Structure formats: C-alpha cells, structure tokens
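Sequence dictates fold. Below is an illustrative record:

_____
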Amino acid sequence: MSISLRKLAQAAGVSVGTASRALKHQAGVSEQQRQHVQQLAIELGYDISRLQRQPIGRILFLLHAQHTTASASPFYAEVERGARLACLDKGIELQPFSINTNSSIRRQLLQQEADAIVCVGFIEPEILAVVQALGKPTTLIDACAPQLASVNPDNQAGTRLMTEQFIAQGRQRIAFLSGSLAHHSIRLRERGYRQALFNAGRLADPALEALIAPGLDLASGTRLALNELLNLPQPPDAIIAFNDACALIVQAACLERGMTLPDDLWIGGFDDIAAAHAAQLSTVAVDKAALGAAGIAQLLALAGHQDIADTLQPVRLILRASTGAISTQ
C-alpha cells in the first residue's frame, strides 16, 4: 500500500508543499532536497501517479482583507480583471476570496475546492505557510516569498525613474511617504527612491522618509505623516508617495492648507489608477490587467510542470501637472 504525501514529507523532514514540488521537479526546492525526497519516495513506495493532476478548473484569487478596502480596490480590481479574462480564455473559474483570520485558515481554503491558488498582494507569512502546505500549484502577484514563484511590477525601477526626474528638474529635498514596509512592493519602491539619491551623490535624509504609523487607516495616517514632513525646519519641495491613493490624499491635504501646487510642492504617486489621471497626478504606470494575466499564465505553467522563473512587468513614468508637466495622459 502506498504511503501518503504527508507521511513522505514527514519522513523527509520537509513540508508537504516542498515534497510535492520536489517530486514534480518544480522551482523553489534545492537539488539536494529534490534528490532526498525522490529517493525516499522510491524506498517507501510512494505512488508517483498520485501527482498527475486533472486540468485546472477553479483558481482561488486570494486577497488580503486590507486590499478589499476602497483605497486599495482600484489597483487590485484591475489585477483581478486581467486574471479573470485570462481564466475565461481557458475555461477556468476564478474565485476571489479573503481570509477570515478568526477561524481555521486551512479549513477555509479547503472549503473553496480550488485546484490552484494565486495569492495577491501582501499576505502574512503564516497564511502563506498554510497555503503552501496544501500542495496545490501556487503563485504570487504583487508579492514575494521564499520557494514561491511570483509576478511583480518593476517597483524599484519605477521610483528610481521618478526620483531621477525630480532631481534632474531641480528638486532639492525629495521626500518619500511610505506605507508598511512589510509589503514587498513598498520596500522596493523605497529602495528605488534611495537608489536614485545614491546615484546622484545625495545623502538620504532620514527626516524626509515618512512612514504611515501602523494601525492607522490610509487617510489619517497619510495626513499625520504629511504634517510631520511639512512642519520640518526645511520641509520637502517634492513628495513621492508609495501609491496613488496616498498621493491623492497628500494633494488634497496640501490644497486644504492653502498651498499652491505644484509651485509649493511637487507630488508623485505610483500605480496610475483612474483617479490619478483625473487629478493630473504624476505617477508610475503599472499595467494592472497584464499583471493579473501574467500571474495566471505563470500558475498554469507551474501546474503543467514547466520550468518557471520570477518575472518583472515593465512600468512607465507619466508626468502630469502635479509636477509642473503639461500632459493629458
């Protein structure tokens, strides 16, 4: 009688997900682990035919509850649209889902009866661990984690390009207004800002790096961080916000203060949501629908036992009136 995958994983001293990837020659497993698991499978009589999957008919689109709020939905709604169109083309059902952390995560995931899972945006490591342990094909969109394939916009290049543009146009005190650095995308956006300063021979001023305090909603947290920046003895002459939703709050708060924009302050965002165009906000454009479609393509390749690699989607700098540019984009 063949042993279960869980017992094989226990014998090998690895997670169920790692054992599954090792047997299917997928990424995220060292060659030593792969050989160890495969050798044990032979010795213990594991039935390799168990790994032959039926065609994927249902993909779980797993989104953190914080991304279902009004401030986050413009970005992730477009990612979901791209993923849904890619699934529709393949005859696959896409099921959006958000974890309730007050009940069993594993039970919630199993109840969805999905064949594969795409995790979108920030998701806590402990939840990702439960997802991986299910042994289902899994990929990440707008996120990064060990041993999981991912698709991301080129976050670092985006803020680097914007900061370089601000420097070239004579901005002297460029601030970065950041959300939680637990989010992979935000960390890289901050890194791009710092990289541009370094490349220009400028020292990064810690006073110009404002962080939205944990536990605060985006609107109140942004306004509090903005007040700290504007009350500095030498306030910034430009602010790059970690996303457009944050940048639009900065723009509104500055106008309420009676500031003249962009004469008093340049403002830039990231993502290019529809509201950014309406507000003439300079931003870094992300093709959000393409991001979602690329995540589904990567997931299906993974399920098909194909070689895959983490991918970066290109981004584009768009300059509008918030930084003194004349643009209708």
DSSP finds twelve helices and twelve strands in the chain.
